[in-house]
Amino acid sequence: MTLLEMKNVSVHYGRIEAIHDMSFTVEEGEIVSLIGANGAGKTTTMKTISGLLNPSGGSIKFMDEDITKMKAHIRVVQGISQAPEGRGIFPAMTVLENLDMGTFGRKDRSGVSDDLERVFTLFPRLKEREKQFGGTMSGGEQQMLAIGRALMSRPKLLLLDEPSMGLAPQFIRQIFKIITEINGQGTTVLLVEQNANQALARAHRAFVLETGAITHSGTGKELLANPAIKEAYLGVG
Amino acid sequence: MSMSDGPKPLQTSKSAQGTAEAESHGVPPGSSAAVARPRRTFGAWSDKWREMPRTKQWLVLLPVVVLAFLLPLMDIPLITTEPGNDWPLACQAMAIFALVAVGLNIVIGYAGLLDLGYIAFFAVGSYTAAMLTSPDSAFIKIPYLWTIPVAIAVSMFVGVLLGLPTLRLRGDYLAIVTLGFGEIVRILATLIPAMKGQPGFQNVGHPPGVGDDGVPVFANNNGTPWYWLTLVILIIILFLVGNMERSRVGRAWIAIREDEDAAETMGVPTFKYKVWAFALGAGVGGLAGAIMGGQVGFVNNQKFDVVTSILFVAAVVLGGSGNKVGAIVGGALVAYIPLRFTAIAEYKFLIFGVALIIIMIYRAQGLVPARQRLLAYGTKAYADVKRKYGKASHRADTTPQSTAEGASS
Ligand SMILES: Nc1ncnc2c1ncn2[C@@H]1O[C@H](COP(=O)(O)OP(=O)(O)O)[C@@H](O)[C@H]1O
Ligand SMILES: [Mg+2]
Questions:
Q1: d(CA B151, CA B284)
Q2: Is some CB atom of chain B closer than 8 A to the CB atom of A123?
Q3: What is the pLDDT of residues B124-170, one digit of tens each?
Q4: I need a surface site. Which of A41, A130, B28, B337 has the fewest CB within 10 A?
Q5: Is A111 on the interface with B (CB under 8 A)?
């Protein structure tokens, strides 16, 4: 089943067009990676899906419902959850309080503690640091918190915007491993990355974004093998 | 914005980052970075305070409250503002400023909305009280005490009216726009004939009661009863605000202050909550204005200038943005200093302006640092969250250091 469908979506910042006529789908159960250089429009795409930006053209469908005009805080209730670029954790709240914010829009209170357990199982470090303030955590821990918080709304589609950004190598490996694990538990993942190697290796399908438009698409393996992509994004000539 | 979410947490995050990152190489977690929080004298107090049970908190508060009530009767040398200024009236001014600061703190401290035109709501409250009680007004007259709820309602309405078109703006843009609010009210007061411009309204009403000497209890120059009235109202407001900051609404405000986009994507209807913060703040401002109007007995368009509005902001930021206790201290100080040190009263805007800048540069948390989360979540709120997840927390609670930490708190 198609979970998310972007159809001819364009996004403008004032008069500057950041996304041009973009169309792609995310099927239920997939990990879809979106790779591209700095400024290609990856974050803009994510914010448009989560509802923080409004498209200037085109339409967005989520589970066959048109959500183009839907407010961001409603989209999370519908099942779209975002761990934003730069993590966006609440520094003055403790880890537990941050996680609790993830349930803000939730209607069902009953499943909440199960989800907390799931998050603590995925990220034991968060359990250890339960009372610590978000702002005093390391970059890797903050990223875990951002992902954990996004999971607390029990999303159908998890949006991850550069989860590996600025992290130490062992954290990067761990984060990607956990993303696969989350996907294995049934959550569809749309992953934005500059770390193309890992992102393609973990993805079922992937898209390459260049200056606001999709230039390549295929399975993760296909794109990994594509010489043009190898040269441009994988650092091998 | 920039005023309220001070740089402190970010700095700590950067400095703590090294430690925590190093830990991940095999040092047992929870050893140092987990407790590496900035410690300050006031911080330690507030920690202790939050860990106290409610009943014990009340026992500690009781003498403070009694002392507060006795304040206008205690004309202590060196502290008193006399002979320059009547001491009970000075106490009243401090209480009014404290009330204003507590209200503005909802807007700036909790929701992170830098409102530089808060005086507008204060003015609306004053005018509401004046126009419904003064013989100079052509409106219907109601007893003074009834004007207080009316003033709250009217200023909340004005808050929503001003908030709806402007609260989509963020940060500095919002600050600039709000700067105009105060001026709008002042100009309207000049232009609208019913608001009587500079002549204004004399003999604004006051609460009932006449003393043995035939003078009204709430005479304009009788500070003590006014102070007591204001103090009672302040305590009620503190109680309400305290409950609110621990509620879902309070959490939403803090989330908005810390990261508006993140809050929105967590399911917080940020715009709605910002309008609420604005409206509730406006209500408290209007309330303070109504009391001020009654006590002074005279309201005209000269009393509400932008500079005073900035003084309100100074009260909040000096005290420690985001902290009710800080707001009270800040508000009281901003009123007290010019009354006590009359020689420098002329320069109060300069002094508080400089103090504001210094605080913002060197100590973004103000005199009574809230350690920020206090505003969002006391221990009690933390305990509530914890209880909510009781099951999961209990089951996952197997790591020794987390139990140790739990026991030490
Ligand atoms: N708030 C903004 N205002 C104006 N232009 C922006 C804004 N945010 C991003 N852009 C521009 O849109 C383009 C895409 O940015 P972004 O989506 O952040 O790229 P990426 O996430 O792929 O690095 C860039 O050219 C960037 O400069
Ligand atoms: Mg980006």
A1: 9
A2: no
A3: 999 999 999 999 988 899 999 999 999 999 999 999 999 999 999 98
A4: B28
A5: no
Taking one residue from A and the other from B, the number of pairs with CB-CB distance under 8 angstroms is 174
Does a structural domain hold residue A21?
Answer: yes
Residue B334 CB contacts under 8 Å (≥ 6 apart), including other chains: B97, B101, B311, B314, B315, B318, B352
Among chain B residues, the shortest Cα distance to A93 is held by B373
Nearest bound ligand to the CA of residue A209:
1
- CA-nearest residue for atom 12, ligand 1, is A18
Give buried/exposed letters for A54-74 (b at 16+ CB in 10 A, else e): ebebbebbbbeeebbebbbbe
pTM: 0.85
Q: Are B34 and B402 in contact (CB under 8 A)?
A: no
| Any ligand 1 atom below 6 A from CB of A43 | yes
Amino acid at residue number B164: L
Closest ligand 1 atom to A161 CA: 21
pLDDT tens-place string over residues A74-110: 999 999 999 999 999 998 888 999 999 999 988 887 8
pLDDT at B408: 36
CATH architecture of B87-362: Orthogonal Bundle (1.10)
| Residue showing tokens 């159960």 | A29
**A198 in a structural domain:** yes
For the Cβ of A208 lying below 6 angstroms from any atom of ligand 1, the answer is no
Report the CATH number that the domain containing residue A205 is assigned in CATH.
Answer: 3.40.50.300
Instruction: Report how far residue B286's alpha carbon sits from residue B292's, in angstroms, rounded to the nearest whole number.
Output: 10
Q: Is residue A65 part of a domain?
A: yes
Q: Is residue A48 part of a domain?
A: yes
* Ramachandran quadrant class, A76 (left: phi over 0; alpha: psi -120 to 50; beta: rest): alpha
- How many angstroms separate the CA atoms of B264 and B272, rounded? 11
CA distance A87 to A77: 20
Query: Could you give the number of structural domains in chain A?
Result: 1
Query: What's chain A's Rg over C-alpha atoms?
Result: 17
- Give the whole-angstrom CA distance, residue B349 versus residue B136: 32
A220 in Cβ contact with A35 (< 8 Å): no
Flag the least confident range among A27-36, B155-164, B246-255: B246-255
Print the domain residue range for A220: 1-77+188-237
Chain A interface mutation, best of B11, B253, B266, highest count of A Cβ atoms under 10 Å: B266
Measured CA to CA, the distance from residue B142 to residue B148 in angstroms comes to 11
Q: What percent of chain B has pLDDT over 90?
A: 48
ipTM comes to 0.94
DSSP B107: I
